[in-house]
Amino acid sequence: MRTCLSPNSVAVVLGTRPELVKLAPLIHELGDATRLVHTGQHWDEAMSGRFLRDLDLPRPELLTGVGGRPRAGQIAQSLGQLDAAFAEDRPAAVVVQGDTNATLAGALAANAREIPLVHVEAGLRSYDRAMPEEHNRVMVDHVSDLLCAATEDNVANLRAESLDRGRIELTGNTVVEVVRRQLPDRAARAALLAAHGLRPDGYVLATVHRPENTDTAEALGAVLAELDRIARAGTPVLFPMHPRTRAAVERFGLAGLLERLAVTEPVGYGDFLGLANHAALLVSDSGGVQEECTVLGRPLLVVRRSTERPEAMEAGFAALVQPGEELGGLARAWLSDTPERLARLAATPSPYGDGLASARIAALTAALAGRGAEPVVPLAA
Ligand code: UDP
What we know:
The chain is an alpha/beta fold and 381 residues long. The protein is built from 17 helices and 13 strands. The protein has two domains: 10-174 and 355-368, Glycogen Phosphorylase B (Rossmann fold); 185-346, Glycogen Phosphorylase B (Rossmann fold). α1 packs across α17 (357-368), α7 (175-182) packs across α13 (287-296) and α10 (217-232) runs parallel beside α15. The longest helix has 18 residues, at 71-88. The structure holds uridine-5'-diphosphate (UDP). Uridine-5'-diphosphate (UDP) binds at residues 17-18, 21, 207, 209, 240, 266-267, 269, 272, 286-289, 292. Uridine-5'-diphosphate is lined by residues 17-18, 21, 207, 209, 240, 266-267, 269, 272, 286-289, 292.
């Protein structure tokens, strides 16, 4: 461990799959200083238990009665329990990541008790006020004491809101190191593809779960119809289905559109990376996948109205598409020049940093908590 933090002194508050993934490298850097608190927003084997194990994370303190509630109930339940936990045993710092209800609850709990607060992945903005995530990330940024921005764009977004320059640090994104560490080796990837009956560079990997794609039969039907057309035209489509999407398919009677897709339960993180690493095309509305595709060098169609991650588009890895014909048209165009596209992306560096973000954030967190740490080389702008 690089820092001089006391054992159990940094509360890392999280509640969902993407937070487990992105915070794993920082938790490893913090070592025994980590006090892991899980709000239980995603708390089942497929979305959480397996990730705690596979990412080698410590056993968390688990809050109760949070999962399955509407947004305000999740935040209120988490906030009350976090406040009691922090009153009983005050952390030297609290770390949150991203834009979930757990992120906001952790931030408000730290703020209420005047505990130094670190926001990992600060400064993302979609400017889409219909997304609860946008409200969560804006509120968290404004109460944080240390804003760990992944990119120069994220720094600029924070500066545009007049956030104090002294609180902002350019760190890179921890996704770079987690992908490098968790990607299975060549033999394991070959076995994985064989188990799914897939050929390298010969299939589409798709995930959708956001409300804009699952709240109405029209939107979900439009995505699934285009995936079905791709499969009909002969390119296999692997579709690990999020629990929210599965429920929506049943509710809207859309199961017929799944018949030609290779539908699975959500897969573990290593398997997801292994499958993404050899896909001819990714189709997703996930935030994390927009970053992971740049580390893996794979093309991605982002099925969303807006994005808070323009870097992947600007670097040529991703494009934003509407769920219907635009998705189908661009998918066919991109699948028609797969070898050239993959060669170009393999030669394009990820805009998300150099793999040292978690070391930088651990050192900055230690300094914020009043404990020294070895400095880490700054991220080249
Ligand atoms: N993921 C996974 N298994 C799957 C689908 C996704 O491990 O079957 C990973 C994916 O690589 C990414 C994260 O889950 O790191 C994304 O989670 P989600 O889409 O739920 O959240 P978002 O990133 O949109 O906030």
